[in-house]
Amino acid sequence: MPALICGSLAFDTIATFPGRFAQQILPEQLHILNVSFLVPTLRREFGGCAGNIAYTLKALGGEPRVMAALGADGAEYLARMQTLGLDTRHVLTVSDAYTAQAHITTDQDNNQITAFHPGAMQHADRIAVPADKGDLALGIIAPDGRDAMLGHAAQMHRASLPFIFDPGQGLPMFDGAELRHFVGMASWITVNDYEARMLCDRMGTTLEAVSRSHLQGVVVTLGAEGCEIWRQGEVVRVPGVRADAVLDPTGCGDAWRGALLYGLERGWSLERCAELGNRVGAIKIACHGPQNHTLDPAQLGLR
Questions:
Q1: Could you give the residue numbers annotated as active site?
Q2: Opening angle at CA 166, ends 162 and 70, nearest 5
Q3: What pLDDT, in 10s, does the model give residues 138-197?
Q4: Based on C-alpha coordinates, what's the Rg of the chain?
Q5: SS3 state of residue 106
Q6: Apex CA 139: angle with CA 195 and CA 186, to 5°?
Q7: Cα–Cα distance between 186 and 165 in angstroms, integer?
Q8: What is the rounded CA–CA span in Å between residue 234 and residue 34?
Q9: pTM recorded for the entire structure
Q10: Which residue intervals of 84-189 are DSSP H helices?
């Protein structure tokens, strides 16, 4: 059964800085910050959370249905998704806006500095989740336009469609009351460790307390260290998987979430979902770009 993926579609311009940001930034001079990073490599990739998650879910053998907005320059992206076999019936083209753009610079320690132009993403609230969920099994609210995230979460809740709340880099847009509202409607939460601290700080609570609720699980991803799964105040650590190479972290979290959706579609435990997510993340980080990794379901034990 399909999974509804609400989030951004973006073009990623990815540059690599062969040094360390920390060596170029003087902490005592942050009030007059003026730095320039020489980036000898530059690539333009298809990206955005919805596109990245859908790419991995489809590669695993799942059924992603993308709900997102493209700009007038998005025809190439739409054609690519359709070539990959993604369901794009809920993709909106906004004629008077650019597709969202992310300009990402990564240093040799995999720290990243990103500048993001939302473009058409700001109009994603014009797309509505079907009132009758039909054959949809579950959904995910990934980073998107603010109004779209609020609206789509409420619409999924009204349609009795269980969903993952994945606020990601969109988390700072919401205050504590709004985050509590999201959490109250969601079935699962996924955040990285930094986002987990921000979520708890804004809500004035702890992961232990958040997990002692109706939620089926709160997952905190920890990069190469794996992840933590919180349920009813108890935490389980799922260890990471060593990557063959560490080339580009862009999209690793989205790849992990694609694996999570794949497992949830099939009724797996969160531990089994996380094990697959950790393996997929290790494969993705060994490839440049968020949508260039190749997955073999048979080698992953899925067929």
A1: 254
A2: 95
A3: 999 999 999 999 999 999 999 999 999 999 999 999 999 999 999 999 999 999 999 999
A4: 19
A5: strand
A6: 55
A7: 6
A8: 46
A9: 0.92
A10: 146-158, 176-185
